[in-house]
């Protein structure tokens, strides 16, 4: 059944609805109240959370999610969280109802479901590491020159602050 869901999600990504969202090109870091992280693992979410709180302040609410087909963790999502025709189920609907000010997208191994989740949150300002597939979805991208996620995220936040 995964391949059916993947087929529909892939077709949605290939033929995106033309929805023009009014997004500010610049995001004032002083106005950030909530951040959503889409990462590769729970450990990566914790590392990014530490960097965010040390660089932007502890008062920022940080939510994190990662793709894992076998995990039962509350932060994990998988193809099972989509209907047969690629629509988000209850768990993801609740996540999508929260509109973060900033999305940090860091997965190195991409799949259609993480890209689709990023596309569904297109009204939020998003940043991450450059990849050809993520180019249409991210507002600020850096080459992933850093060896670890901690220093890479710190660089993303540094450049976000500099463009303000």
Helix content: 25-40%
- What is the annotated CATH architecture? 3-Layer(aba) Sandwich
Q: Reading side by side through the largest sheet, how are the strands ordered?
A: 3-2-1-4-5-6
* Count of distinct structural domains: 1
- Which structural class is indicated by helix and strand composition? alpha/beta
By CATH reckoning, the class would read Alpha Beta
| Separation, N- and C-terminal Cα atoms | 45 Å
Shape: globular
Uncertain runs are none
How many strands appear in the DSSP assignment?
Answer: 6
Q: Could you state the CATH homologous superfamily?
A: TPP-binding domain
What does this structure look like?
It holds the Pfam family DUF6913. InterPro entries: DUF6913. The protein is α/β, with parallel strands linked by helices and 164 residues long. The chain has a single domain (2-10, 33-162), classed as Rossmann fold. The chain is 36% helix and 16% strand. It has 5 helices and 6 strands; from the N terminus they run αβαββαβαββα. The protein has helices at residues 2-14, 42-56, 90-97, 112-120, 149-162, and strands at residues 34-39, 61-67, 76-77, 102-105, 125-129, 140-142. The chain has a 6-stranded parallel sheet, sandwiched between helices. α4 (112-120) links the parallel β4 (102-105) and β5. α1 (2-14) crosses α4. The protein is globular. The N and C termini lie far apart (45 Å). The relative contact order is 0.19.
């Amino acid at each position: 059944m995964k391949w059916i869901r993947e087929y529909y999600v892939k077709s949605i990504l290939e033929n995106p609805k033309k929805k023009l969202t009014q997004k500010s090109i610049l995001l004032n870091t002083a106005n950030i109240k909530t951040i959503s992280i889409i990462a590769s693992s729970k450990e990566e979410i914790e590392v990014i959370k530490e960097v965010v709180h040390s660089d932007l302040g502890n008062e920022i609410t940080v939510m994190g999610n990662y793709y894992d087909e076998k995990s039962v963790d509350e932060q994990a999502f998988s193809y099972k969280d989509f209907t047969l025709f690629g629509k988000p189920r209850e768990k993801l609907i609740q996540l999508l109802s929260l509109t973060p000010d900033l999305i940090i997208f860091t997965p190195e191994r991409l799949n259609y479901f993480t890209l689709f989740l990023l596309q569904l949150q297109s009204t939020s300002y998003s940043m991450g590491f450059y990849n050809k597939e993520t180019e249409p979805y991210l507002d600020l991208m850096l080459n992933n020159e850093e060896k670890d996620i901690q220093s890479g995220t710190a660089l993303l936040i540094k450049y976000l602050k500099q463009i303000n």
